Amino acid sequence: MAEPTPLDLTQPWWEKHPDQGFVLPRCDSCQRFHFYPQPACPHCGHANCQAAPASGRGEVYTFSIVHRAPSPAFAADVPYAVVVVKTDEGPHLMSRLLQVDMAHIHIGMRVQVAWGLLPSHPHGPVFIPEEAV
Ligand SMILES: [Zn+2]
Questions:
Q1: Is 120 a member of any domain?
Q2: Distance from residue 23's CA to the centre of ligand 1 (Å)
Q3: Cα 86 to ligand 1 centroid, rounded to whole Å
Q4: Residues 55/89, Cβ–Cβ less than 8 Å
Q5: Distance, CA 89 to ligand 1 centroid (Å)?
Q6: How far, in Å, is the centroid of ligand 1 from the Cα of 14?
Q7: What is the pTM of this model?
Q8: Which residue, 16, 32, 54, sits at the end of a domain?
Q9: What is the residue range of 39's domain?
Q10: Which residue among 7, 26, 29, 42 has its CA within the 20 to 30 Å range from the CA of 89?
C-alpha cells in the first residue's frame, strides 16, 4: 500500500497549509465546517466550499489498536492506534495517534494535529496527545 494520492478537491487536507496550518473544508454560505472534502456542502447543499483554518484540536471519539498489519507496508508500525477525532470545529475524521502510550488512550482524550511524524506519510496530518506539545 502506497501513500494516498490526493485529488484537487482533497489536496489542501493532505499537507500543512503554508499560511493556515491545519485546514478543514468550510461552506461559503452557511459557514459550517465539514469533513471529508466534497463538491457541495453536506449541510446546505451550497456548491462553494473552501479550505479554512481550523484549530487542529479535538478529542478522541473512538479508537482501535491495530496489532496485525493489514499489509506488509504497515508491518513495522504495529501496534499502532487508529483514532476518530471529533475536532473542536465539529467534523469527525480518522487519523493515527502517535507519541502516546497505547494503554493511556481513552475516549475524550484531548489531541492535536502534528506534522511530519509518520514516515509512510511524511507530509500528512496525524494527531498526538495535547499535553505532548
Ligand atoms: Zn453550507
A1: yes
A2: 16
A3: 19
A4: yes
A5: 14
A6: 22
A7: 0.87
A8: 54
A9: 7-54
A10: 7
